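The instructor's notes for this session suggest beginning with a concrete chain rather than abstract definitions. Hand out the sequence below and ask the class to guess, before any prediction is shown, which regions might be ordered.
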Amino acid sequence: MEISVFNTLVMELYSLCSRQESLPYFLSQLSKYYGCRSIGVHIVDRENYHVVCEAVPDDAGEDELQRYAAHFGQLKPYLDNLKGIERRAVAGQLYLFRDNRLLPMESASAVLHGTGNSPEVIDLLFREDGYIVHMVICCPENAQPSYERLMDSSLLLLPHVQQAFKIYHTIEQLKNYSVGFEQAMHKLNSGILLFDGNATLVYQNRKARTILASTHVLSIISGKMVGPSSGTTQDLARLIRSAVEQGKQGSQKASGMTLRMGDGHDQGVAVIAIALHPHIHSAFTEETGVYAAVMISTGGAGSGLEPDLLQLLYGLTPAEANLAIGLSDGSSMERYASEARISLHTARGYLKLVFQKTYTSRQAELVALLRSIPVVIH
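After discussion, reveal the predicted structure:
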């Protein structure tokens, strides 16, 4: 077959990673390449032997559909026997399935050659990652594909099949991770915004969109955070860029600021930038990935934080955690010292340690940080 036909097959094969609806078209192209009447595919999950996919060409007639259903069904009661065979099987190796036997293609020539043994339908199996792929090849009447051609074609295509499966698995994993990630992010009571290596916004959760829609002091324009003045916008840009650069260096320092209009008509927004350090493979550029997370929240009710959470996040002692929560809820240093039955001097010593452990330097920054800590929405 011409190289252009093979190249078309390979292109269609990789397109299956993102467009499963193209599978019937690919099968019709593959049947032309093999020189057979049509090809169906039956994909089974190796873990539980559930059928993942059954597909045939769009132009398959009713008789062919029945033939495919029969051959797909023949494999199902035999799947349990594959457990023992799989321990000896080689991933990606092609096998002939016939008479409830699995024969390596190298030793199947006796079945595929000779007028007495020539099958009308050829069943091929191979294992790829978590799947068993069963291909049913319907041969032309009074003829069948050349055994040598079938072998050569399969050997050429199998490496691409393997790579396509790896890409498909990666995409499916990312889809699953994305669903879980979205659900977790939408359960937080703080707005979460993620920025890439160019300090450009790549994600915001539902709470972030709600806050941005209700405040006059913060906007997202073309992936950049914009404050109520040019000076504030520059400060925001520096805050995020600093977090991104720290993320690239492996730092986990957090910093923040509070945005206000100054006219008393807006409750303000606390902005906390946290450096992240993703694992970036050498195949990607440094800009790939998420290097900074920004939490935003509006002022209002108390934090609702538990001391245990602050001890876990920042390594605070119980006394330091209680002081931090008290300040976040509007308590004064004097009131905290009185309720804790300690001197004001000792309380100020606790506060100094809290500043060091939370990377803040002023009480307003500490309160903004604590009020931005995500709390699960029930």
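Then share the key points. Residues 147-186 form the longest helix (40 residues). The chain is about 45% helix and 20% strand.
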